[in-house]
Specification:
Layout lengths: L10 E2 L17 E2 L7 H5 L5 E5 L10 H31 L4 H13 L13 H12 L3 E8 L7 E6 L5 E6 L9 H8 L3 E10 L20 E7 L2 E7 L12 E6 L21
Parallel strand pairs: 4-10
Antiparallel strand pairs: 1-2, 3-7, 4-7, 5-6, 8-9
Helix pairs in contact: 3-4
């Protein structure tokens, strides 16, 4: 079946003077809010695990075997991590945990979920457990990443969160200040690229579905420049689906082979050797 981007997620356009844009019939112009609006469609799916793949990634039959294998690989990583998360959350709810188990959970956050914690040495176990629970009780995604071969788009980075932690995030160029030479260099020297090959776990340890809009970083929306009827306008785009819309998810990156990624953004891309 198919779902359609909801009109309720459209955003009002502005003219170049930041006034609401009106069309030739003097009506306010609302535009689709970008792929970040699809977090609402994802939220409507009642499933334990959902695969997300970009539509411009057209894989020829000769590469489908590798693609299928690595779909299973990233799903295997997901359910393995999810099992440990569920075990820890169930343990926390019993209240019968030792200091060593608290330490184990902190190391799991750091070593497996790649979350750099703030200084937790001064916290009591009870305070640590509240922090650990807040980090574990979130949607989980495992993202396939390919080696960077110069395709336009985003990549995997470590980003600082408002609570002082550092976590893996997929960042697009629009989220990075490319006027800052240091930040531009970091973006250009990224070793991997995001082909939008995700597997997502949408339920908690009790089988309850997370409300995905609760985990969106609304501060990561951005303004793009478009036109309508020959007039320039500013369009407000919602936080991207795999960027700000999944900002508060637990995220793990897994390298997958480049042959699982064969983008077709223009008709000329079909002339590449991979599509022959």
């Amino acid at each position: 079946s198919f779902s359609v981007q909801k009109p309720s997620t459209d955003t009002v356009a502005a003219d170049m003077e930041n006034n609401p844009f009106r069309d030739k019939n003097d009506k306010l112009l609302f535009r689709p809010g970008g792929h970040g609006a699809l977090i609402e469609n994802l939220n409507d799916i009642d499933a334990d695990v959902v695969f997300v793949k970009n539509i411009d990634n057209v894989v020829p039959d000769s590469f489908k075997c590798s693609t299928v294998i690595f779909k299973k690989v990233i799903a295997g990583v997901l359910v393995t991590l999810q099992e440990r998360i569920f075990n820890y959350l169930n343990l926390i709810e019993t209240g019968k945990y030792s200091h060593d188990q608290v330490e184990e959970m902190i190391h799991f956050l750091q070593d497996d979920l790649c979350i750099k914690n703030p200084d937790t040495k001064l916290l009591e176990d009870a305070e640590l457990i509240l922090y650990i629970k807040s980090k574990l009780l979130r949607p989980l995604r495992v993202c396939g990443m390919v080696k960077n071969v110069g395709e336009p788009g985003g990549g995997p980075f470590l980003a600082q969160n408002p609570d002082g932690t550092v976590s893996p995030q997929i960042l697009e160029s629009s989220q990075i200040d490319l006027k800052d030479p240091a930040k531009k260099a970091m973006f250009e020297q990224g070793t991997h690229f995001n082909p939008v090959d995700l597997v997502c776990a949408l339920k908690n340890h009790k089988g309850e579905k997370y409300n995905l809009p609760d985990y969106v970083d609304k501060n990561t929306g951005f303004i793009s420049y478009k036109s309508k009827d020959g007039r320039d306008l500013k369009a407000l785009e919602l936080p991207g689906l795999w960027n700000g819309a999944m900002s508060d998810w637990n995220t793990v990156f897994v390298e997958v082979p480049i042959e699982t990624f064969n983008p077709v953004k223009t008709v000329n891309d079909l002339l590449r050797s991979e599509h022959q």
